[in-house]
Amino acid sequence: MIVSICICTHNRLDDVRECLHALNSQMDPAVVEILVVDSASEPATQAALAELVAGIAGARLLRLDEPGLSLARNAAVSSATGQWVAFLDDDTVPFPDYVVALLSVIRRVPEQVAFFGGRLKPRWPEGVTPVGTRWSRMLSLMDDDTERDTELGLIYGANIVYRKDVLDRLDKPFDPGLGRIGKVLLGGEEMKLHFQFCDMGYAPKFFGSVGVEHKVMTERLTQDWVRRRAFWEGITLVALFKKLGKPYPRGAKVYWQALKILALAPKAFFRDPDKDAYIRVWSSIGVLRARLIGIS
User: Fold this and answer.
1) How far is the CA of 242 from the CAs of 42, 57, 294, in angstroms?
2) Is pLDDT above 80 for 251?
3) Do the beta carbons of residue 36 and residue 4 sit within 8 Å?
């Protein structure tokens, strides 16, 4: 088996159905398997997922009774039989050539590359004007069809691929103390893993040919959502470096974040059409909250 495509989901039956429909026509069970991890969905969704997955050749369903994205991803890694493990968010829709492009990259990727990200083209709600760059990053969008070396922070777990043998060197590659659970927007589980990979001597790449559409929900285009998302981004930064046991970077230092808030506040709240400064301010508030009060 060359690659295991893993989709972790919680109560999103319609999204999973569309994602699997896009993959089904591309499947070659001799080289590709699909793992759907049901992260404690409600009973009706659980039953419907079982029926849905049973109808797709080369697909398997894993059921977890405890929710949590990191737990679901670790279960997928443990069960995967492919040489590579590809993760797709349940609200992505793979391009018609996703599997062909994925296999093509896997067959030629350099040995020192243990993980790579792919294109995340936004599917905006009807009538919505696209948001600015920083907000797009909050939405895990990377609409780029190039092939290049990349920074750790510019590949996203919604469309990402790992060498299975490198994942297997770690007991729990995705830290259960990080990652989304329900509506708690704590992240960092991917970034921690990526730091560990880099410490092992591996490098990331970006391959825009491996593409999916990423649905943008209307609620994520509200100021309230992006405020909460940015706030938790700041908390995540502190939690990540605490978990890594590394010195806090400048971006997680109290005095620096306080100065940034003072400098950006006038623009953030009065003349910021793209909400760039607004997002940066709330991320800084999240850092201060985590450093001065705590993460939980």
Assistant:
1) 34, 43, 11
2) no
3) no
For each of the domains in the chain, give its residue range(s) and CATH number, in order of start: 3-219 (3.90.550.10), 222-292 (no CATH)
Q: Are 217 and 229 in contact (CB under 8 A)?
A: no
| Rounded Cα–Cα distance for residues 109 and 129 (Å) | 36
**For 173-248, where are the E strands, in sequence order?**
203-215
pLDDT by residue (tens digit) across 123-136?
Answer: 999 988 889 999 99
Partners of 214 in the beta sheet? 92, 122
Cα 153 to Cα 161: distance, rounded to the nearest angstrom: 15
E strand spans, the chain: 3-9, 32-39, 59-64, 84-89, 92-94, 113-123, 147-149, 159-163, 203-215
The encoded tokens of residue 55 equal 């109808």
Please report how many Cα atoms fall inside a 13 Å half-sphere around the Cα of residue 44, on the Cβ side: 4
Residue pair 20/47 in contact (Cβ under 8 Å)? The answer is: no
Say if residues 79 and 36 touch (Cβ distance below 8 Å). no
Under a CB-based contact definition with an 8 Å cutoff, are residues 198 and 152 in contact?
yes
- What is the DSSP pairing of strand 59-64 with strand 32-39? parallel
Q: Where are the beta strands (DSSP E) in 165-248?
A: 203-215
Amino acid at 290: A
Scanning the structure block, which residue is given the tokens 């969008």? 141
Q: How many CA atoms lie within 13 A of 57 on its CB side?
A: 7
pLDDT level of residue 248 (50, 70, 90 thresholds): confident
